[in-house]
Design goal:
With 421 residues, the protein is of the alpha+beta class. The chain folds into 2 domains: 218 residues, no CATH class; 107 residues, no CATH class. 26% of the residues lie in helices and 23% in strands. The strands form 4 sheets. A 4-stranded antiparallel β-sheet has the order 8-7-9-10. Strands 11-14-13-12 form a 4-stranded mixed β-sheet. Strand 2 and strand 3 form a beta hairpin. Helix 4 packs antiparallel against helix 7.
Length: 421
């Protein structure tokens, strides 16, 4: 039977938030007040869904080296929203031991029971794991009641605390032989599986046949233990110790899930947030790899990275011979043009535009543009104090060339000649 159509301006009660109507003389029960709390939570949840899921601020995960108890990380204070619209707040930094866990949680009230969190492991064997923050709750204190024996009243807790818990879920990833043997390459390979690289490729192959809703890559890599209540914090690799903690492979800023349909993929805000994360993951990993040397000499992109973002910044030695050696080693086997000079005014726009371009496969032979930022090189040449770190910019060959000769804005000794097309 076909449902009767609604009339214009008719009140639609379906899905409405039902709050208690207070008036003088009304008899209130505990159930009424619980219903009022439920209405408040539902209103907050809908606002959370509108804002989008992800991390609002903080919640960075940092490795604690040589902790006496073993595998321990620190999670900074912060705020997140999960896909159910629930806010998850950690008010203070928290140390978390990854080799032990508390008893399984059993929800007892409506605020948390919908999550049905299951699974979760401890790092008792080598593997790659996903750290998440998820909702929890606890009854705290005792409230006075009219019972003669307050100990017999099971529901007389003073407060219900809406809290959080940290979970660790095993990741199932596919790795080639080279990735299994090298932690740097393994970290990069895991990150790009978390980014859902297959969906990017499928969009280019068949733009008219993308699914209306693209599955979350972590739902495939983790399985049913990863729920709508979880907010990813980091990927952790554990052997006999914690090998690495990678934030941006799974960390995302708050991002609303707006459009739906076959043409939504390129315009979804989620896609841009993933592009930002790809860039930040590379820069954070590269920073860790160059702590000792200070630059990329001795690193080969084709051996250390499965994919590169469409644009990135590389720390360089800062002298002609060292820069040439660093470029030759990092881009060994790659097709590069440059470096040419660009004005610093173009740098931010260049990086922002790169978030919408496909990544670079360093083993594909595709063209890569190289640039010096004029202000950076000029400050080094003038021996400014403190001396800036030399920086080389690379971009995908699919991005527009940024260093066309422009004598109206060029600086002497930092200009370009027209390249052969």
């Amino acid at each position: 039977m076909t449902a009767q159509p609604k009339l214009l301006q008719q009140t639609i009660l379906d899905g409405g938030i039902r709050a208690v109507n207070f008036f003088n003389g009304r008899l209130l029960t505990g159930e009424d007040l619980t219903r009022e709390q439920t209405a408040r939570r539902e209103a907050d949840r809908r606002l959370g869904i509108a804002l989008g899921d992800g991390i609002a601020w903080g919640l960075e995960v940092n490795l604690i080296e040589n902790h006496p108890l073993g595998s321990v990380v620190t999670i900074n204070a912060g705020l997140a929203i999960n896909r159910n619209g629930q806010t998850l707040h950690l008010p203070n930094p928290l140390d978390v031991l990854l080799s032990d866990r508390s008893a399984p949680k059993v929800a007892t009230t409506r605020s948390f029971i919908d999550c049905g969190l299951k699974g979760g492991v401890i790092a008792t064997k080598p593997g790659t794991y996903l750290l998440t923050i998820a909702p929890d709750e606890a009854n705290v204190g005792r409230a006075q009641s009219q019972s003669l024996d307050e100990g017999s009243v099971r529901c007389n807790s003073d407060a219900l605390v809406e809290a959080v818990q940290i979970r660790m879920l095993p990741l199932t990833v596919e790795l080639d032989v080279a990735s299994r043997a090298d932690n740097d390459r393994l970290r990069n390979a895991v990150a790009w599986q978390c980014f859902g690289l297959d969906y990017m490729a499928n969009f280019l192959i068949d733009p008219l046949r993308m699914p209306a809703q693209i599955p979350e890559p972590l739902e495939t890599l983790v399985g049913k233990t990863y729920t709508r209540c979880d907010v990813p914090l980091a990927v952790v690799r554990v052997t006999t110790k914690i090998e690495f903690v990678d934030l941006w492979s799974v960390r995302r800023r708050l991002t609303p899930r707006g459009c739906a349909g076959a043409f939504a993929y390129p315009v979804e805000e989620r896609r841009r947030a993933e592009g930002e994360a790809m860039s930040l993951q590379f820069q954070q990993q590269l920073a860790g790899m160059t702590v000792a040397s200070g630059d990329v000499r001795g690193l080969a992109a084709s051996k250390k990275f499965v994919q590169l973002p469409a644009a990135g910044l590389l720390p360089m030695p800062g002298d002609a011979a060292g820069d040439a050696a660093a470029i030759a080693s990092f881009f060994a086997g790659c097709t590069v043009r440059g470096p040419a000079y660009i004005e610093g005014a173009r740098l931010e726009t260049l990086l922002r535009e790169s978030y919408s371009y496909p990544p670079i496969n360093p083993n594909s032979g595709e063209l890569i543009w190289l640039y010096w930022v004029r202000e950076n090189r000029q400050a080094i040449d003038l021996k400014r104090d403190p001396k800036p770190r030399a920086c080389l910019v690379f971009t995908s060959g699919h991005m527009p060339y940024q260093a066309d000769a422009r004598l109206d804005v060029a600086k002497w000794d930092y200009a370009n000649t027209e390249i052969d097309r």
